[in-house]
Amino acid sequence: MITPEIVGPLIAAAFTLMVYSFFYRENKAYRFAEHVFIGLAVAHGTVISSKYVWDVALSPLITKGEAFWILPILVGLLFPFFFSKKYFWVYRIPISIVVGTGVGIGMAGLIRSQFIDQIVQTIAPVSPKADIWSSGSHPINALLIAIGTLGTLLFFIFTREQKGLLLYASHIGRWTMMIAFGAAFGFTVMARMSLLIGRMQFLLDPSGIAWYLIPVAIVVLAVVAFAERSKGAKK
Amino acid sequence: MTEENEMSFFDKLEKVDPRLIYILVFLIVSLPLIRPLGLPISMSPMTIAFYDAVEKVMPGDVVIVSIDYSAASSPEQYPQTKAVMHHLATKGAKIIGLGFWADGTPFIDSAFKDVLGKSKDHPKYGTDFVNLGWIPNGEVGMKALGGDVQGTCPKDYYGTSTGTLPMMKEVKTGRDFKMVITLSSGTPGVPEWIRQIQAQYGVTFLYGVTAVSAPGVRIYFPAQAAGGLEGLAGAAEYEVLLIKYGYKGTLAPPMDSQSLSHLLVIIFIVLGNVGYVLKKHGKAK
Amino acid sequence: MKLSATIRRSLPLVITFIAGLLAIGDYYLKVKVFNDFITQWMKFVNVAAAFAVIIGYVTLTRIHTRRLNQRREGWYNSVALLIGMYAFFLLGVVFSEGKFTAHPAYTYWFNNLYVPLDATIFSMLAFYIASAAYRAFRMRTTEATILLVSAVLVMLGRAPVGPAIWPAFGPITSWIMAVPNSAGMRGITIGIALGVMSMGLRVLLGRERGYLGPGA
Prior knowledge:
The complex is a heterotrimer.
Chain A: H1 4-20, H2 28-64, H3 70-76, H4 88-122, H5 139-155, H6 165-204, H7 213-234
Chain B: H1 2-14, H2 18-34, H3 45-55, E1 62-68, H4 74-91, E2 94-99, H5 106-116, E3 129-134, H6 138-147, H7 149-152, E4 179-184, H8 190-201, E5 204-209, H9 214-217, E6 227-230, H10 231-241, H11 252-284
Parallel strand pairs in B: 1-2, 1-4, 2-3, 4-5, 5-6
Helix pairs in contact in B: 1-11, 2-11, 3-10, 4-5, 4-10, 6-8
Chain C: H1 5-28, H2 32-50, H3 53-69, H4 75-94, H5 104-135, H6 142-158, H7 161-165, H8 169-204
Helix pairs in contact in C: 3-4, 6-8
């Protein structure tokens, strides 16, 4: 019995395998899947934006007569002037509102949370009872963090020749950053593998039907590879 | 002669077809999913801190769960989402699901269905949990949310007027949030929430991030963020802690895959560098 | 509408400055009337910003209909893209009975087509990172060696296999994350904050105009 509950996962598995076919070589199935994804992604963004505009502005305007919502709708409708050569400057009005607001909000909040608070945390009170392996509040760890943070900041001073004390501090900063970037790489490997594990979980789930397509994909791949080899041998 | 053989062996290794590497990765990741190894999951202090913070939630506390990730990160972050929702529901929190990523908001509905059985049709929808859907414009949207919740989200994800939902009557601004949990894979995410909500309203803030973001957001712990879940490992650890609440985790086999894949990458790094060092040594001579 | 070139060039810069000043002012000035106005203003900006998706939609339509009309190589992929784009949009806006993304049919295709595609395309990175680890990651300098050692310790410590081999891998990883990683990232974050501040000032004062597009 062919139901949506069966067709849906089969479609998902088919497109998954089409994308993975890229690892054999670039092919039409992969390109097809990629183009479908791009279309869906843009459509989804548009649908969800439409819902927001309807809920927040259009619906109150139409049903409750809240006329002031005309203003942001009109401003938003200036975006399509992006495509006009003559009136391109009109597009700059909504973009400058959005960018100006975003920049202002970002700057205002940044000073406290990513500047002052970070400096305060570097010189925060220590606690000898804190766990040395996991807490930045342990006296030794706190000292190392302070030295490392200072060294990292001093590394980026390029307006003076780095020599003497500044050079040593810069080296400490560089090594601190290398350890941090190594940790970042380790976590990046973890993240990427997790994404693959998620897809494999879907494909190999014994209670699902996606895994039926794996032998099909292997057979198709084998046939294509064999055909290519024969073509190559004939040439 | 032996050194020449070693050099050519490592030269051959360097030129190996990348498709062989891909097949190895595929096998290493797949095999533990079919035949789990049962490696014990060790705890990270960040996960324990996250768990302890949620344990302090009292019945009736309003908790924002913000889905700020796309489908691309869902293998890592959807397990975090389900575990967090389950824990909050167990503590009797009033959950407000929303998101600043367009791709992620359908996951709020899916999570409610997976954890609570139903979403909009649940008898407690509107009294114990709501789904406010997507809010555009990132950090500007967060600021708007903090200033006026119902004005920013006049309707929920299903089109119902927010003002008619019983639990939303007491939620007007950021001051009414007891806790904010963001499950984020990029921007807008942790720093934006801290700037616009945590710093402004002093709300308890927790995060769940993809492993890629974890090192960068660690700096916010413990002063600005009370704890964090880091990637799939964080979700797996959290599932273990939730066993006492009857949560049935599914991440033990994936963590086995994670272990083997890490070992494989380490072996690749070692092999590549042994070859490099030997080549360099050979050239120096 | 004919405006002088000077006004056309200056108007967006003035708007950017005022919009930014309003946002910064709301952060520092606690005057109820002003704060309430800004809250309303933020909602307006949200609604206006939501219209930006039109640009992406129209651009893709133009590019791919042109490819289709000219029958360029792979034009059938453009057909697939356009069908996917418009069908999904119609399903979500026109045929969703007002439910938009909450409609069951939309959710069905989102879960069975969009999510698998998005997740799979991103998961390809796993293969590339393994390949890169094998072919490119070399201990050429002391710094690269430090980076590699740190990476290996973290990879071992964060997966169950590390503590299973040697229990100390867990605490070592925790220490790396708590101390040198925090120190390095904190220094970088403070530096980024300074950079963003200066860049933000440049944008608000009109010295940085890249966001306005060509010819600004």
